[in-house]
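FORM 7B: Structural annotation worksheet

SECTION A. Query
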Amino acid sequence: MAGGKKAKNMAKSAKGKVKETTGKTVGNESLEMKGRAEQAAADAKQAAEKAKDALKH
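SECTION B. Predicted structure
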């Protein structure tokens, strides 16, 4: 997997986790859901990158 894309996906996942935790802490369900969605999107992109790498080898 390209190092830059992997790092970007991990950063996006971490950002989503922060949003989710902040949303839980302050009682903002919308922010919490946005954080979960951001994490899911990052996880999906990371899985796609891993699949691409598997096909290359």
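SECTION C. Observations
The mean pLDDT is 91. The longest helix spans residues 29-56.

SECTION D. Sign-off
Analyst initials: ____
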